Amino acid sequence: MERVGAARDLVLGYIRALNAIDEAMRVAIPSLERLADVLGLARSRRISRSGHIGTYSYTVHGAGCRFISENGTEVDVDFEADGSEVFDLWRLRWYGLSLPDPLDVTDEDLRSAVRSLQPLLDEVRSGWFSVAS
Questions:
Q1: Which of 8, 16, 25, 89 holds its CA 20 to 30 A away from the CA of 103?
Q2: What is the reported pTM?
């Protein structure tokens, strides 16, 4: 159970980091209505596909973006067509491994952690999650 607790803390940390990124991006780009708008800005060439915004570096990819904080913590997120933020177990594991004190958890422990966090999280499609609205 201790491993699932660590995985649960990791998931909650990822969500807090994603919220901090959203807030920092909105401060740095006042016209940003939601984090997913970074994709449109990059596609329209109003910002580069990679660079620095505020205290984060970012790289736009496919349907999402990877953000890296000053301490090297990585938060990779995809966006649904409606702009909602979604993530999978791989993104959660990668976040854990990028922490200043890396945390390596199994997919099984992450699955249990995500299940324990419902209704905070919704499984929007098999293996992909978002914070419930």
A1: 25
A2: 0.94
